[in-house]
Every structure is written in C-alpha cells, then in structure tokens.
C-alpha cells in the first residue's frame, strides 16, 4: 500500500525505468562537465569540488538560467516516448512533455526548437540555490500571459503533473517537501516583482497555519521518483548536508 496517493495527497512515489534514469544521469553529467571544462569521466563527487569553488556570479552564469540546464534532444525525446507508454500508471489517454519557450531558444542557441523540457538543478552546500514555497500552477498562469515565456505545447491536455527525480546528493534533509493535501486547498497567491521579474507568492498565513502538514515523501533516494499535482505547494530547504544536490524535473501534460 502506498503512503501517498496523487489524487488524495497531491503527491505519489513511483519507480522510473532504470534505463531512462541512466540516460538522464549521464546526460546531466555530460552537460555539467562541458560547462566546467572537465573530463567527462569525472564523478559528481569530483565535480562538487569545482562547483562549490565558483563564486555566485560565475555559478549563475553557468547554472542560473534554466535554458542552459535542459537535457539533450535525443534524451528528452526518449523520455517523452517512455512516459506516454507508462501513462504514469493511470488510464490517461495521452501523456506528453511540453517544448521550449521562445525565450529559451533565444537564450540557448544550441537548443533545438522541438527539444522537450527536461532540466536539472544544482544546489550547492549552504548557498541560496533553492526556490521559495510555490505552486507550479501559479508560474503557468503567469507565463501563459507572456508569449516569450509560454512553452510550445504539442497537443491538447486537461491536467499537469510534475515529476522530480533525485540524481545525486539527495536526502531527507535537503530534498523536496510538500504541503500535504494542498492541491485541494483554495490558496491565495499574489505576484511580486523581484529583480524585474514577476514571481508568485503564496499567502503567508496559509504557510503558517499548515506547517504541521509538511511531508517529505521519499523512502529510497536511489529508486524513488515523486510525481505531484502542479497545484501542490512545495519547496526545497537549503542544502546543509551534502556538497551538492542534483535533481531533475519535468512537467507531464495529461489528456484524461
């Protein structure tokens, strides 16, 4: 019996095909090694030494913009094919990934126009590399109003589900935490401007009143993958426990 259920809790732990996870693992390693100009055979542990030596400006230039952290076209194409066959263990008519935004293509000339959006995130030790408490749906509402920020969606969909994979250095202290049942709650959200960009801000009273409902769903970071409703409030704490934390994520577009 599963500890969490997508419909009830807004989150659920699933297992990802080992071959697909291996493709993702190796593609991320290749991308980081190219950025740091390191031998591709170096381990993530060895890369961590270089990553933590970078000052914030250099780190942000290399890893700040999501357009520089997308996985390669061939790998994302295989992921897209896999999740549609997998159907996230449900009787969905179709499951597929969305593609690049016009701004992504402008920021990274190496990307192909039909590259699917699967990206990784690097969180250094004791650095402010994590996002605030948020819901993905609020970003979608914001970006849908801006043609440059709206992704290409190759098909009709009725729902969005986010997938988050631990890759390296992930544990119960530094990985995603969720507000249990929050996808069922009517949460007020305002938008504020930070460094010229609008960002969603969840009602602080909601956060305060629901701290007792915060859960960390992972049991096995080597095999577990979490999928969650994009209306589920979540966050990642500051990484104080490992040299680097590397994760991968993407949004599955669902046709029910």
How are the secondary structure elements laid out?
Elements (H helix, E strand, L loop, with lengths): L5 H4 L1 E5 L2 H19 L7 H8 L4 H8 L9 H14 L7 E4 L4 H6 L10 E7 L11 H8 L15 E10 L8 E3 L9 E6 L2 E6 L1 H6 L4 E2 L8 E6 L4 E2 L8 E12 L1
Antiparallel strand pairs: 1-9, 2-11, 3-11, 4-9, 4-11, 5-8, 5-10, 6-7
Helix pairs in contact: 2-3, 2-5
Description:
The structure is a single chain. The strands form 3 sheets. Strands 1, 2, 3, 4, 9 and 11 form a 6-stranded antiparallel beta sheet that branches. Helix 2 (18-36) runs parallel beside helix 3 and helix 2 packs antiparallel against helix 5. The protein has 256 residues and is an alpha+beta fold. It has 8 helices and 11 strands.
Task: Please give a handful of descriptors for the protein shown.
single chain, 256 residues, alpha+beta, six-stranded antiparallel beta sheet, three-stranded antiparallel beta sheet, 11 strands, globular
**How many beta-strand runs?**
11
Count of alpha and pi helical runs: 8
- Name the helix and strand elements from N-terminus to C-terminus, one letter apiece: HEHHHHEHEHEEEEHEEEE
Question: End-to-end distance, in Å?
Answer: 24 Å
Q: Which residues sit in consecutive blocks of at least 5 with pLDDT less than 50?
A: none
Shape: globular
Oligomer: single chain
Roughly how many Å is the radius of gyration?
A: 18 Å
Overall mean pLDDT stands at 94
Label the structural class.
alpha+beta
The residue fraction in helices comes out at 25-40%
Q: How would you characterize the largest beta sheet?
A: 6 strands, antiparallel
Strand portion, in percent? 15-25%
């Amino acid at each position: 019996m599963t500890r969490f259920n997508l419909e009830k809790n807004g989150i659920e732990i699933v297992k990802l095909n080992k071959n697909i996870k291996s493709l993702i693992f190796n593609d991320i390693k290749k991308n980081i090694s190219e950025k740091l100009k390191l031998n591709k055979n170096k381990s993530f542990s060895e890369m961590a030494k270089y990553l933590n030596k970078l000052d914030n400006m250099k780190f942000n230039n290399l890893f700040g913009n999501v357009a520089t952290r997308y996985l390669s076209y061939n790998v994302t194409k295989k992921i897209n094919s896999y999740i549609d066959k997998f159907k996230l263990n449900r009787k969905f008519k179709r499951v597929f990934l969305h593609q690049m935004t016009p701004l992504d293509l402008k920021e990274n000339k190496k990307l192909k126009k039909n590259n699917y959006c699967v990206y990784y995130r690097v969180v250094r030790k004791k650095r402010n590399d994590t996002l605030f408490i948020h819901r993905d749906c609020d970003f979608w509402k914001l970006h849908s109003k801006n043609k440059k920020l709206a992704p290409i969606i190759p098909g009709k969909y009725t729902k969005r589900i986010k997938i988050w994979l631990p890759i390296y250095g992930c544990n119960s202290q530094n990985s995603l935490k969720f507000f249990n049942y929050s996808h069922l709650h009517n949460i007020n959200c305002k938008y504020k401007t930070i460094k010229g960009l609008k960002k969603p801000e969840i009602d602080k009273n909601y956060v305060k009143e629901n701290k007792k409902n915060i859960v960390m769903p992972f049991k096995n970071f080597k095999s577990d993958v979490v999928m969650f409703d994009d209306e589920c409030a979540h966050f990642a704490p500051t990484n104080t426990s490992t040299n680097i934390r590397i994760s991968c994520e993407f949004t599955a577009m669902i046709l029910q």
